[in-house]
Each structure stands twice: as structure tokens, then as C-alpha cells.
Amino acid sequence: SQKIEQNSEALNIQEGKTATLTCNYTNYSPAYLQWYRQDPGRGPVFLLLIRENEKEKRKERLKVTFDTTLKQSLFHITASQPADSATYLCALPPDYGQNFVFGPGTRLSVLP
Amino acid sequence: KAGVTQTPRYLIKTRGQQVTLSCSPISGHRSVSWYQQTPGQGLQFLFEYFSETQRNKGNFPGRFSGRQFSNSRSEMNVSTLELGDSALYLCASSLEGGSNSPLHFGNGTRLTVT
Question: In B, which residues are within 8 Å of A94 by CB distance?
């Protein structure tokens, strides 16, 4: 069955630096991958989708890469701000008989 | 457009009781999925409904059930509650589901079983 791992449970960085979060998956070859942001007490919010034929996708200060050979996606936040502090989740699309599979998430704290 | 609305926001129940949670999807969205989120297990898929039919189901016991109405609103029911059912229950809607369209989540119902 699909398995998703995210590099660390928590990540602390200084304001202004680039945060890099990792999502690794096994036993699957997804056609695309999604990233979500979740704030405490709220539901996840969709951020970006990247397809297997796209090496990189950008949205404002966010950048996502997708390496189907390494079975890995990297999520970057440049010029990070304290407001970027949240849990970030990667998600794989539905496999047969299942729905979106989410990684465990990485809790990012941007320190002023 | 209004977002996904879940009611109630908080619920406290006793072991053995049953509970019904409600979800109103974004207008025009036909797919509604339910997820359970706990600190230990993360987001776990419960089931998905599309046009009033259950289309996919996760690995949860039969005590967890759901339904979808003709207006796409959905309810999930948990019977014979156990302590381990304490969790944040999230509903998500999407246009068609099962595709590359993103999920739009509500803010969840926090269920505490005592």
C-alpha cells in the first residue's frame, strides 16, 4: 500500500530564511501530488498541485519540485515569515478503492 | 462562495453513545469526503460520497457510516462510541472527486469521548 513520509515532525527556521520540507513516498507512482497547509484547529487548505511531467511549480514565495525517480517532492518557502508557521501536508491522489492519502505533516515554526 | 461548513464544532459524548456530524459542501461540489485526524495517526480517510452514493471507503469499522443527500450535504454517524474515536473529523468537498481537483476542507468537528 502507499506510504508517505515527511522529513521531520517539526522544523524551526529564522525569519527571512528558506524553509524546505520533504515528502517521500513508496509503493506508488502518482500522476500528481498536492501540498496543503493546516493551522491549529482548522482544516487543511490547498496550496499547490504538481504533475509528474512538471519538474517545478511556483506560486508567490512557494516552490514545489517533483522527482518521480527519487519518489520525492520538495516544498520551499522563500523569505519565510512568522505567518508561515503552520503544519504542511503532502497528499497523493486516489489509488484504487481509496481516496487522497496524506502524509503525517511537518510543523513549521518561523522564528522572528 | 461560502466554504465547507461543519456542525457542530465541538462535541462531547460518553462511551457507548452514538453521534451524527453534519457537512455542507461548497455550492456545486458533488463529492464529499470524510477524514479522521488524530495526533498519532494523522489524516485517515473514512469514506467518499458522490451523487448520494458511497464511492470509496477507508479501513474503518462498520460503526462508522455516512450518507449524502440530494443537495450534496452529508452526514456521518458513529455508533457505540469508543474512547479511541476522540478526534477531529474533517469533511472535504470537491467538484467531482477522485481526480486532480483539490479538496476543500471544513474546520472540522472536534469529538471528545469520555
Answer: 56, 98
Cis peptide before B8 (omega within 30 of 0): yes
The grid coordinates of residue B5 equal: 461548513
pLDDT single digits (tens) B10-25 = 999 999 999 999 999 9
Q: Which of B24, B46, B47, B103 to mutate to test the interface with A (most CBs of A within 10 A)?
A: B103
CB contact under 8 A, B43 and A102: yes
Residue-wise pLDDT for A23-75, tens only, equals: 999 888 888 899 999 999 999 999 999 998 998 999 999 999 999 999 999 99
B10-13/B109-113 β-pairing: parallel
Q: Do A43 and B98 touch (CB under 8 A)?
A: no
Mutation for testing the A interface, residue in B34, B43, B110 having most A CBs under 10 Å = B43
Q: Distance of alpha carbon B60 from its chain centroid, rounded?
A: 12
H/E element, B31: strand B31-38
Nearest to A34 by CA among A88, A108, A110: A88
